[in-house]
Specification:
The chain folds into two domains: 32 residues; 241 residues, 3-Layer(aba) Sandwich (Rossmann fold). The two termini are 36 Å apart. It is an alpha/beta fold. Strand 6, helix 5 and strand 7 form a beta-alpha-beta unit. Helix 2 runs parallel beside helix 3 and helix 4 packs parallel to helix 5. It contains ten helices and nine strands. Keywords: Membrane, Transmembrane, Transmembrane helix. It comes from candidate division WOR-3 bacterium. InterPro entries: NAD(P)-bd_dom_sf, SDR, SDR_fam. This is SDR family oxidoreductase.
Length: 282
């Protein structure tokens, strides 16, 4: 029993669940996050983390520009769930020119952009004993999607934010940026390290234009991206690395994005939030 309250002379137990509900309601009353009239572009929106971000931001009133590449039906379903005039936008982020076009299409559609969430990414194995041509192809594909597209999208967003007098960028990086990655994923680790430095550079150089830049570094998250890893090594090999003894879910990551786009954490610009269930503490 956590505590008791008296109603009509009868003791009533306050359960931990009720306390959680009360705390959440108090936080809501204090902070009152309202994203109505905010247009937010989320890349890789049809993936596990992306979907959770879209749905949560939609709950708080944001209009979401939902980026997808192949899963159009999933994107349409997300737009319907998010509401608030959210729309879908297709782009192949491995092609820089399509990244430029994506920002332009969002601006042409909504006439504004308040935040960019760079969530799209791939995690593909590329052992060093592969033929150099194949290895370079894998390397370039990972770098193009996980780093170059982030750079190009940030470039276009920053140019617009300077004109519009401010905006926010949230880049989804990885714990690999700080602890390194395994021997078959050099490009992934290198790209995510670059994303962290890019995030800091934007925060440092463009804060005077009211532009804020943040990174989130998840560890293993229960999404399709880690399916190959699980097939090779098993879930237990992941769980034993985690202080919390459970896999992080997309719903554990999305609230961090919500707070960052809300404006309540603007003075943490340039920083990285670790969300990894205690697998890597720095």
């Amino acid at each position: 029993m956590i505590g008791k309250i008296i109603l009509a002379d009868k003791p009533k137990t306050i359960t931990p669940y009720l306390i959680l509900i009360i705390c959440r309601f108090c936080v809501y009353l204090i902070m009152r996050i309202d994203l109505h009239k905010n247009v937010i572009l989320v890349t890789g929106a049809t993936g596990g983390i992306g979907s959770a971000i879209v749905e949560l931001l939609g709950e708080y009133g944001a209009t979401i520009a939902i980026h997808y590449y192949k899963e159009k039906e999933r994107a349409l379903d997300l737009a319907k769930k998010a509401g608030n005039n959210s729309k879908i936008f297709r782009a192949d982020l491995s092609r820089p020119i399509q990244c430029v076009k994506l920002i332009k299409e969002v601006l042409n559609t909504y006439n504004r952009l308040d935040a960019l969430v760079n969530n799209a990414g791939i995690y593909e194995s590329s052992p060093i004993n592969r033929d150099i041509k194949r290895w370079l192809k894998d390397w370039n594909r990972t770098i193009n999607i996980n780093l170059t597209s982030v750079g190009v999208l940030c470039r276009e967003a920053v140019k617009y934010f300077i004109k519009s007098r401010g905006g926010r960028i949230i880049n989804i990086a990885s714990r690999a940026a700080f602890r390194g990655e395994d021997k078959d994923h050099w490009a992934y680790g290198a790209a995510k390290g670059g994303v962290i430095t890019l995030t800091r550079t934007i925060a440092k150089e463009y804060g005077k234009y009211n532009i804020k830049s943040f990174a989130i570094a998840p560890g293993f998250v229960k999404t399709r991206m880690i399916n190959d890893y699980i097939k090779r090594f098993g879930v237990k090999s992941i769980i034993k690395q985690l202080a919390l003894n459970e896999l992080t879910t997309p719903q554990d990551v999305a609230p961090a994005v919500l707070f960052l786009v809300s404006g309540y954490m603007d003075h943490t610009t340039g920083s990285t939030i670790d969300i990894n269930a205690g697998s890597y503490i720095r």
